[in-house]
Amino acid sequence: MDGWSRGLRVGAGLAAGSFLLAVGFGAFAVGHGWPAWLAIAMSALVFSGSAQFALVTAFAGGGLGPAVASAALMNLRFVPMAAATARHLPGGPWRRAVQGQAVVDGSWVAAQLPGGGLDRRLMFGATLVQWPAWILGTALGALLVPGGAALHATGLDLVFPGFFGLLLYDALRTDPRLAPLGVAAAAIAASCRFLPPGVALSLAAAVALWKLRP
Protein backbone atom coordinates (compact mmCIF):
# COMPACT_ATOMS: atom_id res chain seq x y z
CA MET A 1 0.00 0.00 0.00
CA ASP A 2 1.51 3.34 -1.04
CA GLY A 3 1.79 6.44 1.11
CA TRP A 4 -1.27 8.14 -0.32
CA SER A 5 -3.51 5.14 0.39
CA ARG A 6 -2.19 4.73 3.93
CA GLY A 7 -2.55 8.46 4.48
CA LEU A 8 -6.19 8.44 3.42
CA ARG A 9 -6.86 5.49 5.70
CA VAL A 10 -5.11 7.10 8.68
CA GLY A 11 -6.73 10.42 7.86
CA ALA A 12 -10.20 8.88 7.98
CA GLY A 13 -9.69 7.98 11.64
CA LEU A 14 -8.21 11.37 12.45
CA ALA A 15 -11.01 13.10 10.55
CA ALA A 16 -13.61 11.50 12.80
CA GLY A 17 -11.98 13.09 15.86
CA SER A 18 -11.45 16.37 14.01
CA PHE A 19 -15.11 16.46 13.01
CA LEU A 20 -16.34 16.06 16.59
CA LEU A 21 -13.83 18.63 17.84
CA ALA A 22 -14.93 21.04 15.11
CA VAL A 23 -18.57 20.70 16.16
CA GLY A 24 -17.53 21.80 19.62
CA PHE A 25 -15.53 24.70 18.22
CA GLY A 26 -18.38 25.93 16.04
CA ALA A 27 -20.75 25.95 18.99
CA PHE A 28 -18.09 27.50 21.24
CA ALA A 29 -17.36 30.34 18.81
CA VAL A 30 -21.02 31.22 18.20
CA GLY A 31 -21.69 30.97 21.93
CA HIS A 32 -19.00 33.65 22.41
CA GLY A 33 -20.68 36.04 19.98
CA TRP A 34 -19.02 35.10 16.69
CA PRO A 35 -21.27 34.89 13.60
CA ALA A 36 -21.51 31.40 12.15
CA TRP A 37 -19.98 32.43 8.81
CA LEU A 38 -16.88 33.81 10.50
CA ALA A 39 -16.34 30.66 12.55
CA ILE A 40 -16.64 28.55 9.39
CA ALA A 41 -14.28 30.83 7.44
CA MET A 42 -11.74 30.67 10.28
CA SER A 43 -11.76 26.87 10.16
CA ALA A 44 -11.27 26.89 6.39
CA LEU A 45 -8.32 29.30 6.55
CA VAL A 46 -6.65 28.60 9.89
CA PHE A 47 -7.33 24.86 10.31
CA SER A 48 -5.83 24.71 13.81
CA GLY A 49 -8.08 23.73 16.68
CA SER A 50 -5.82 24.86 19.52
CA ALA A 51 -5.16 28.27 17.95
CA GLN A 52 -8.83 28.80 17.11
CA PHE A 53 -10.05 27.94 20.61
CA ALA A 54 -7.33 30.18 22.10
CA LEU A 55 -8.21 33.09 19.81
CA VAL A 56 -11.95 32.95 20.60
CA THR A 57 -11.33 32.60 24.35
CA ALA A 58 -8.75 35.40 24.52
CA PHE A 59 -10.77 37.73 22.29
CA ALA A 60 -13.74 37.41 24.63
CA GLY A 61 -11.59 38.24 27.63
CA GLY A 62 -9.10 40.81 26.39
CA GLY A 63 -9.63 42.03 22.84
CA LEU A 64 -7.83 41.56 19.55
CA GLY A 65 -4.22 41.95 20.73
CA PRO A 66 -4.23 39.19 23.37
CA ALA A 67 -6.31 36.99 21.05
CA VAL A 68 -3.81 37.18 18.19
CA ALA A 69 -0.89 36.72 20.59
CA SER A 70 -2.47 33.61 22.14
CA ALA A 71 -3.19 32.06 18.75
CA ALA A 72 0.34 32.83 17.55
CA LEU A 73 1.87 31.21 20.64
CA MET A 74 -0.24 28.12 20.10
CA ASN A 75 0.93 27.84 16.50
CA LEU A 76 4.62 28.32 17.30
CA ARG A 77 4.82 24.54 17.59
CA PHE A 78 4.61 24.38 13.79
CA VAL A 79 7.98 26.14 13.43
CA PRO A 80 10.13 23.17 14.53
CA MET A 81 7.67 20.74 12.91
CA ALA A 82 7.98 22.53 9.57
CA ALA A 83 11.76 22.81 9.90
CA ALA A 84 12.03 19.06 10.49
CA THR A 85 9.74 18.38 7.52
CA ALA A 86 11.33 20.75 4.97
CA ARG A 87 14.23 18.47 4.08
CA HIS A 88 11.78 15.72 3.06
CA LEU A 89 9.85 17.94 0.63
CA PRO A 90 11.03 18.24 -2.99
CA GLY A 91 11.16 21.39 -5.09
CA GLY A 92 12.02 25.01 -4.52
CA PRO A 93 10.97 27.28 -1.64
CA TRP A 94 7.50 28.07 -3.01
CA ARG A 95 6.68 24.45 -3.78
CA ARG A 96 7.86 23.35 -0.34
CA ALA A 97 5.82 26.15 1.25
CA VAL A 98 2.66 24.86 -0.44
CA GLN A 99 3.41 21.28 0.59
CA GLY A 100 4.08 22.51 4.12
CA GLN A 101 0.42 23.42 4.52
CA ALA A 102 -0.17 19.70 5.12
CA VAL A 103 1.83 19.88 8.38
CA VAL A 104 -0.92 19.46 10.97
CA ASP A 105 -0.60 17.63 14.28
CA GLY A 106 -2.22 14.28 13.51
CA SER A 107 -0.87 13.95 9.98
CA TRP A 108 2.65 14.92 11.00
CA VAL A 109 2.77 12.42 13.87
CA ALA A 110 1.35 9.62 11.70
CA ALA A 111 3.90 10.31 8.94
CA GLN A 112 6.96 9.85 11.17
CA LEU A 113 9.07 6.81 10.27
CA PRO A 114 10.53 4.63 13.07
CA GLY A 115 14.10 4.97 11.82
CA GLY A 116 13.82 8.72 11.26
CA GLY A 117 12.44 10.54 8.26
CA LEU A 118 8.93 11.28 7.13
CA ASP A 119 6.46 9.75 4.67
CA ARG A 120 5.29 12.93 2.95
CA ARG A 121 2.63 11.19 0.84
CA LEU A 122 1.06 9.73 3.98
CA MET A 123 1.03 13.20 5.53
CA PHE A 124 -0.60 14.72 2.42
CA GLY A 125 -3.30 12.04 2.30
CA ALA A 126 -4.11 12.29 6.00
CA THR A 127 -4.46 16.07 5.87
CA LEU A 128 -6.53 15.94 2.69
CA VAL A 129 -9.22 13.97 4.58
CA GLN A 130 -9.14 16.02 7.77
CA TRP A 131 -9.53 19.51 6.29
CA PRO A 132 -13.09 19.11 4.87
CA ALA A 133 -14.13 17.23 8.03
CA TRP A 134 -12.94 20.18 10.12
CA ILE A 135 -14.90 22.70 8.04
CA LEU A 136 -18.06 20.57 7.96
CA GLY A 137 -17.96 19.98 11.71
CA THR A 138 -17.51 23.68 12.39
CA ALA A 139 -20.47 24.50 10.15
CA LEU A 140 -22.66 21.96 11.93
CA GLY A 141 -21.74 23.22 15.38
CA ALA A 142 -22.01 26.89 14.42
CA LEU A 143 -25.39 26.56 12.73
CA LEU A 144 -27.03 24.22 15.23
CA VAL A 145 -25.27 25.78 18.26
CA PRO A 146 -25.72 23.08 20.90
CA GLY A 147 -25.54 24.61 24.37
CA GLY A 148 -22.83 23.96 26.93
CA ALA A 149 -25.00 21.40 28.69
CA ALA A 150 -25.45 19.45 25.44
CA LEU A 151 -21.72 19.49 24.75
CA HIS A 152 -21.05 18.17 28.24
CA ALA A 153 -23.77 15.51 28.02
CA THR A 154 -22.46 14.17 24.69
CA GLY A 155 -18.84 14.26 25.80
CA LEU A 156 -17.80 16.68 23.05
CA ASP A 157 -16.01 18.81 25.63
CA LEU A 158 -13.57 15.90 26.14
CA VAL A 159 -12.74 15.44 22.45
CA PHE A 160 -10.03 18.13 22.42
CA PRO A 161 -7.88 16.78 25.31
CA GLY A 162 -8.57 13.20 24.24
CA PHE A 163 -7.49 13.87 20.65
CA PHE A 164 -4.14 15.34 21.66
CA GLY A 165 -3.69 12.69 24.35
CA LEU A 166 -3.87 9.98 21.68
CA LEU A 167 -1.39 11.87 19.50
CA LEU A 168 0.99 12.09 22.44
CA TYR A 169 0.62 8.37 23.16
CA ASP A 170 1.32 7.50 19.52
CA ALA A 171 4.38 9.77 19.43
CA LEU A 172 5.79 8.26 22.64
CA ARG A 173 5.14 4.73 21.38
CA THR A 174 6.95 5.47 18.11
CA ASP A 175 9.91 7.35 19.58
CA PRO A 176 10.71 6.95 23.33
CA ARG A 177 13.14 9.87 23.04
CA LEU A 178 10.08 12.13 23.18
CA ALA A 179 9.43 11.15 26.80
CA PRO A 180 9.89 14.80 27.92
CA LEU A 181 6.61 15.57 26.15
CA GLY A 182 4.90 13.14 28.51
CA VAL A 183 6.44 14.96 31.47
CA ALA A 184 5.18 18.27 30.11
CA ALA A 185 1.69 16.84 29.58
CA ALA A 186 1.61 15.57 33.16
CA ALA A 187 2.78 18.96 34.41
CA ILE A 188 0.06 20.90 32.59
CA ALA A 189 -2.63 18.40 33.61
CA ALA A 190 -1.70 18.81 37.27
CA SER A 191 -1.20 22.58 37.17
CA CYS A 192 -4.50 23.26 35.37
CA ARG A 193 -6.24 22.12 38.53
CA PHE A 194 -4.70 24.95 40.55
CA LEU A 195 -3.42 27.61 38.11
CA PRO A 196 -4.88 29.77 35.30
CA PRO A 197 -4.59 28.10 31.86
CA GLY A 198 -1.96 30.55 30.57
CA VAL A 199 0.30 29.98 33.57
CA ALA A 200 -0.16 26.22 33.32
CA LEU A 201 0.76 26.26 29.62
CA SER A 202 3.91 28.30 30.31
CA LEU A 203 4.91 25.89 33.07
CA ALA A 204 4.49 22.89 30.77
CA ALA A 205 6.59 24.59 28.07
CA ALA A 206 9.34 25.29 30.61
CA VAL A 207 9.32 21.67 31.75
CA ALA A 208 9.54 20.40 28.16
CA LEU A 209 12.43 22.75 27.32
CA TRP A 210 14.31 21.76 30.47
CA LYS A 211 13.88 18.05 29.77
CA LEU A 212 14.86 18.43 26.12
CA ARG A 213 18.03 20.41 26.83
CA PRO A 214 21.24 18.84 25.43
Could you provide a short overview of the structure?
With 214 residues, this protein is mostly helical. The chain has helices at 3-31, 36-45, 49-62, 64-75, 78-86, 93-99, 105-110, 120-144, 148-154, 159-174, 179-191, 197-211.
Characterize the main sheet: none
Domain tally: 1
SS content category:
mainly alpha
Number of DSSP strand runs: 0
Helix content: over 70%
Question: Element order, helices and strands?
Answer: HHHHHHHHHHHH
- Cα Rg: 17 Å
Segments where pLDDT lies below 50 for 5+ residues?
A: none
Q: Overall 3D geometry?
A: globular
Q: How many DSSP helices?
A: 12
End-to-end separation in angstroms reads 38 Å
Q: Approximately how much beta-strand content do the residues carry?
A: under 5%
Overall pLDDT confidence:
76
What keyword list fits this structure?
0% strand; 214 residues; single chain; mainly alpha; globular; 76% helix
Describe the 3D structure.
With 214 residues, the chain is mainly α. It has one domain. It is built from 12 helices and no strands. The model has no long low-confidence stretch (mean pLDDT 76).
